Fold:
Amino acid sequence: MSRNADISVIIPAKDEEQSIPELGAWIDRVMKANGYTYEVIFIDDGSTDRTWDAMLALHESNPSFKAIRFNRNFGKSAALHTGFRAAQGEVVITMDADLQDSPDEIPGLYKMIREDGFHLVSGWKRKRHDPISKTLPSRFFNAVTRRISGIRLHDFNCGLKAYSRVVVKSITVYGEMHRYIPVLAKWAGFTRIGEKVVEHRERKYGVSKFGWERFVRGFLDLLTITFVGRFARRPMHFFGSWGLVSFLAGFFFTAKILWDKLDSVYFSRIPLKRDVTDQPIFYLALVAVILGVQLFLTGFLAEMITRQSISKKDYLVIERAGLEEKVAIEASR
Structure:
């Protein structure tokens, strides 16, 4: 069996024909200077220029450069997910194709994974060359993500990251979740997450491909990650808890209605000013009880689905000792 490469570099690109040749030459210099065996996997995410031709030219000149082409633009998460599936290196490094990420950071990132024992290392662009329209929203979302996830990183959205091979083979990236890969890794059990200050270079060619809408989609994906990570295997804890709260509120409102009715008939004998069905509290009680029952049923159904999926898919096993069965690490089956 041939030995895996030391490093796989995954680079999503869209309309970056000018950057690709320079970036490829730079990566090659860094790898040769440090004696690494490597592969570079470019993903052409639906480019409309000659980006694919630039990738093919690199591949023809050096087989270590590989390329994957999408038939249309699917987004950075899809590109990274495809690259993760194809990567064969012991350490996987991601970077952007616009030359704002420096390949000179690769040796430091590689060392932190292989020698320092981190599962994942995220770059931190402490000094950024972006307009305030990008830096301010980025700081806000980084603060929110730190608060929700408990991961103390300054720059979740930095494209320059390094991963142990087992991490990228154990997570699924979709939607706008590429910026929350550290959160996905944490929920998968990979908690040794580090950070490295990296150089952020000014864009040399082209224009940014991201707009304000990415922050809205990204925030929704953060909520999805948080919910799935905490309750995917115990959905009844979420739906049952809220169902119990709603049902108890409905029970309390119902008890209040019954007490007022009994009091008016048997104790104070003062007739109610309005019929029971004319009182707002009656409808609050009705809605609360129905909602509580529905949440309980949702929780039970989710538990049944979860148990079936667990019975069909083993938990993630990354090592074995004393067993002949091969270790298979897959993100999905």
Confidence is low (pLDDT under 50) at residues 324-333. The radius of gyration is 27 Å.
